[in-house]
Amino acid sequence: SGNDIALLVDRTPPVVSSIGPTGPNPSKASSVNFVVTFNEPVNGVDVGDFVIDQVGVPEASVASVSGSGKTYTVTVNTGTGEGTLSIDFIANASGGVQDNAGNLSAANFTTGGAFNVDTVPPRVTSIVRANGNPTTAPTVTFTVTFNESVTGLAANDFVVDQIGVTGATITNVTGSGTTYTVTANTGTGEG
């Protein structure tokens, strides 16, 4: 008679709806971020709730968790290496994530998106003279091969070793991917 009370009962545990990488991908950064979204607002989310799922980046580690409500950002140190990196949510791993009604998370989430990580710098695998030796030509060319595709290569990325010759300089760099042709003028003198 006018004193009715409505009571909302919530017995449903919270679950992770998605985990996805955010930011440039592939990444060569020392850390990357994942956005973790729950189906409802939760509390108690911390680094202990996540494990690294990786191939080729064994030093990766969960660094921090920030956020509130339904959305959290998990920062992961990438370590060194080249491969894939994702995180998995482990329910009740560090005391439990719970919703506002106190229901503890009960389901792991292991199907989130991944970063392609490459923290290993490219390296030259060979430099081969492309024309005859000795030469009296005003220029010589070298084929430079890298272990992986590179971009932005320019003449100032190379230095001419001069023994008995003066004034030799790099004049041109062409190519793409893993193979480039470097042209140098031969300067003056013998060597």
Describe this structure in words.
The structure is a single chain. 0% of the residues lie in helices and 45% in strands. With 191 residues, it is mainly β. A four-stranded antiparallel β-sheet has the order 1-2-6-5, with no helix packed on it. It has a four-stranded antiparallel β-sheet with strand order 10-11-14-13, with no helix packed on it. Strands 4-7-9 form a three-stranded antiparallel β-sheet, with no helix packed on it. It is rod-shaped, with a radius of gyration of 28 Å. The N and C termini lie far apart (109 Å). The model has no long low-confidence stretch (mean pLDDT 93).
Task: State the gist of this model.
It is built from no helices and 15 strands. It has 191 residues and is mainly beta. The model has no long low-confidence stretch (mean pLDDT 93).
Secondary structure topology:
Elements: E1 16-22, E2 31-38, E3 42-43, E4 50-55, E5 61-68, E6 71-77, E7 82-89, E8 98-99, E9 115-118, E10 124-129, E11 139-146, E12 165-166, E13 169-176, E14 179-185, E15 188-189
Antiparallel strand pairs: 1-2, 2-6, 3-8, 4-7, 5-6, 7-9, 10-11, 11-14, 12-15, 13-14
**Low-pLDDT regions:** none
**Helical percent range?**
under 10%
Structural class: mainly beta
Continuous helix count: 0
Kindly state the number of beta strands: 15
Record keyword descriptors for this entry.
191 residues; 4-stranded antiparallel beta sheet; mainly beta
